[in-house]
Structures are given as C-alpha cells and as structure tokens.
Design a protein that fits this description.
The chain is α+β, with helices and mostly antiparallel strands and about 210 residues long. The chain has one domain. It is about 35% helix and about 20% strand. Strands 3-2-1-4-5 form a 5-stranded antiparallel β-sheet. A hairpin with a 6-residue loop joins strand 2 and strand 3. The longest helix is centred in the N-terminal third of the chain and has 27 residues. It is elongated, with a radius of gyration of 22 Å. It comes from Candidatus Mediterraneibacter quadrami. Keywords: Membrane, Transmembrane, Transmembrane helix. This is DUF3592 domain-containing protein.
C-alpha cells in the first residue's frame, strides 16, 4: 500500500473548498453586476471573497516552507538508521474562529525513534514531528532513516516501509482508533458545508 503521509506542518491542507467557494462567490457577484450594474454595496462582498484565497495561499506557503527545510536536511546527507520504539499521542487544544469561539482539540501522533550514529555508534532517542494521521498504523516495519539538519536539533524521518494491505499486522499492539477518512470526516464535512453555503448564496442573490 503506497502512501505519502506528511507531518502536520508540511500538509497543504484542504484548500480546494475555499478556492471553489471564492470562484462561485465571484461568479455570483459577476451575475449580479451583469443584471443590475455595479453597486457600491458590492465592494464589501468583493473584499470578503478574498479571505478564503488568502487563507489557502498562506497554508500552501507554510507547507512549502517546511518541505524545503526537509529537502535541505536530506541534501545535507547527515543520515542515520533508526527504529521506531513507540508512539506518543497528544491532543492539542485550540479555539475555533468566529463570534462564538469553541474549544476544540487536534490530535497529533509523534513517533519515538531510537537512532544510532554511524560514526560513533552512540544511540540516542528522538521524536518526530507531529502527524495528524496515526502513521504507525500504515507501517509494516519500525525501521526508518533519520536525517538531521545542520543545527542538529531537527530530525526528519524517511524511507518508511508501508504495509502492502491495510489489514496487515501493525508494528505495535496498540488499541485501534476511529479514523475520520470517509463520510463524516473533516474534509467531507467541509465540502458539504461549502455546497450548502453556495446554494444559500445563490438563493439569496436570486431574490
């Protein structure tokens, strides 16, 4: 089962709904202008449509920034072989945006890795960046390659050995958790939300 699972900081995120929303938003405003001409009040709606695009661009720039750091560490060639010894799960609190802010939690998975310096033979334990997905559930072996950046503080895991089939044995005998990847997932919910919002806007502008 070939996969690419990136740490949370390197994920571009689900920017498609926001971009689609902006496209439909400006199409709706364009239709209003064609039918009734430009009105001063439309300036507010034109500005509002920029926000999802701005958020999408920021998300992409952030992900590319951290991916570049990974590429630089790999190019440096300071690599060692490591063994995943465990997984640390952490629920990080955050507040939703908007007028009514609610406390939510994002779950991250950190891989604990024991690595051995190829020059000195000294072993040390490091922790990976946080993953949104339980990446250990997709691995067939705990063996990985660890790249260290020039500062010596940041480590990047590469050369994961992925399962061939989803039901293959896990590398750790941890209790399974529900994974939000199908209907009811965050991405699916965002798509449904955008569709409903577009229909509401379309209905409002047709009145």
């Amino acid at each position: 089962m070939k996969r690419v699972i990136r740490p949370a900081e390197e994920e571009i995120g689900n920017v498609v709904p926001g971009i689609l929303f902006s496209i439909f938003w400006y199409c709706s405003i364009g239709g209003i202008i064609l039918r009734g001409g430009f009105q001063l009040m439309l300036v507010i709606f034109l500005i509002a449509g920029v926000l999802p695009v701005f958020q999408a661009v920021t998300s992409i720039r952030r992900a590319l920034f951290y991916r570049k750091q990974r590429a630089e560490a790999i190019a440096l060639g300071n690599a060692a072989y490591g063994t995943i010894t465990g997984v640390t799960r952490q629920d990080v609190p955050y507040y939703t945006s908007g007028e009514h802010r609610h406390l939510r939690y994002r779950r991250y998975y950190f891989l604990n890795v024991q690595m051995t310096d190829p020059m000195t033979g000294i072993s040390s334990e490091i922790q990976s960046q946080g993953y949104r997905k339980p990446i250990h559930r997709y691995l067939s072996s705990p063996q990985v390659k660890v790249y260290t950046d020039q500062s010596g503080w940041k480590h990047y895991l590469e050369d994961f050995q992925w399962k061939q089939h989803r039901n293959d044995p896990d590398i750790f005998n941890y209790p399974r958790e529900f994974e939000e990847v199908h209907i009811g997932s965050e991405r699916f919910g965002q798509i449904i939300f955008v569709i409903i919002l577009i229909l509401m806007i379309f209905t409002m502008f047709r009145r």
